Amino acid sequence: MLAFFEYLRNITYYLMFATVAGMVAPSGKYRKFVSLVLGFVLLLLMLRPLVRFGNELEISDWFTGIIPGNEMAQGDWQAAHTDWQNTYLREVFEAQLEAQLTNLLENDGFTVHWAEIDYTDDFSQITGVRVSVSREEQAVRVPFIRIQPVQIGQPESEQDAGDCPTATAAKKLISEFYNLPTAHIHVNVTKAR
């Protein structure tokens, strides 16, 4: 209660000072400037107890009890924040890796249908890559005759990625870029449509 009366006394003293300063200030354009500055100082003086109150509380205490029946301890807030932060970092990292892999393969003429990248928990190393790609074979330009190649023994929709030159080229490209053994890279080649 004593702090409240001290707060009121400080505001009263300041208002008396501001009144005298307003009377002494020269008339004209400077009077508006002096009144603006005095108003800002009064505003800061009035908000000072709120700043002190805010500094005494932890930020996590501000949100305790907002949701009825869901009071969280200090450690729970920190754990929830850490989980949210890790989830956000994981999503951003995965999006960047997928965009990087897609750009890498598309620059070499591949079309990427889907990609999955495995990595360590600390985001320091890529441990595996699974990707589905297709590559449009470049047709040889012949003046009058065009022959479509026919693949014998291959299914219509997918090729066996083990012997396929497209898969081998994609594996080599990914292996060199990520410095990853080809045993950790799985390429599924889909027929271009």
Ordered list of secondary-structure elements with their pairings:
Elements: H1 2-24, H2 29-56, H3 59-62, H4 74-107, E1 110-119, E2 126-135, E3 158-159, H5 165-178, E4 185-190
Parallel strand pairs: 2-4
Antiparallel strand pairs: 1-2, 3-4
Helix pairs in contact: 1-2
Distance between the termini: 80 Å
- Percentage of helical residues? 40-55%
- Compute the number of helices: 5
Main sheet, how many strands, which sense, barrel? 4 strands, mixed
Brief summary of the model shown:
With 193 residues, the chain is an alpha+beta fold. The protein has helices at 2-24, 29-56, 59-62, 74-107, 165-178, and strands at residues 110-119, 126-135, 158-159, 185-190.
Explain what the structure shows.
The protein is α+β, with helices and mostly antiparallel strands. The chain has helices at residues 2-24, 29-56, 59-62, 74-107, 165-178; strands at 110-119, 126-135, 158-159, 185-190. It has a 4-stranded mixed beta sheet, with helices on one face. A hairpin with a 6-residue loop joins strand 1 (110-119) and strand 2 (126-135). Helix 1 packs antiparallel against helix 2 (29-56). The protein is elongated, with a radius of gyration of 35 Å. The termini are far apart. The relative contact order is 0.08.
Throw out a few tags for this protein.
5 helices, 53% helix, 193 residues, single chain
